[in-house]
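Lab meeting notes turned into a lecture example. A postdoc, R.K., suggested we walk through two folding results consecutively so the class can see how the record format repeats. The first protein's sequence and structure tokens come next.
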Amino acid sequence: MTLLFRLLVYCWVSPVTLLGGLLSMLAVLSGGRARLRHGVWETWGGWPGRLLESGLPFLGPVAAITLGHVVLGISEQAIHVTRVHERAHVRQYELWGLLFLLAYPLASVWAWAKGGHPYRDNPFEREARKADKEIR
């Protein structure tokens, strides 16, 4: 991928990455840790980590969540275990940009309307689970 194209991809995703970056700063300021790994800012612990662990609406507790080029997790171990899955979501953000914030919940509603589970049957989640299985 050329440098110019990579830069355009980061710009396309930047509104969501900025939101993730803000949550990452809150995590670090509240005792969490962060690092840059292969172009993705990984953050764990702190206030956002405790929120993920206690549960998100409609999802319950989650180990990690992706916002653009930022992955927030409950612990460093959770970041490691979910890395392939969450990188699939990074690629989805790179494709959809800001629209992913609308496409993901609509895909959940569509899955539920067809009689499926809003999380397990969401095509974005199926794609991320498939990527994880292919690596393992």
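The second example is placed directly after the first for contrast:
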Amino acid sequence: LAWPHLMFRELVVGLATVAVVLILAIFFDAPLEEPANPVRPPNPAKAPWYFLGLQELVSYSAFWGGVAIPTLLVVALVVLPYLDRRPAGVGLWFARERRLATALFLLCVCGVIVFTVIGSLLRGPNWAWQWPWQAPPAVSH
């Protein structure tokens, strides 16, 4: 039964998570930068981590990265339930009957992860490629 046993367990896990985050927030400062200065913006100006994959795609092509690929992914998510109506393997992790669907999903997830990692760790000033162990080039102001 979901009530009260499952709900109680979820409440305990939620409260434990809040307690751990609160304790970490008390003992460790957030790695914040100085307050925003419109006269001297950061170089590169990066989106939050959850949009860095999209920013990375847009850096290659504004149309394909910002319009076409996101639109195709949303349309694919809307149309997918109408195209794949077979009940075989539904509800099972990595079912043999659903190899194509699993492979396409894993391909999309890996693409998002790769583009997010590239955008967050491998982009330096002027959005140029930079390895993490390299010193950033001098930027004149």
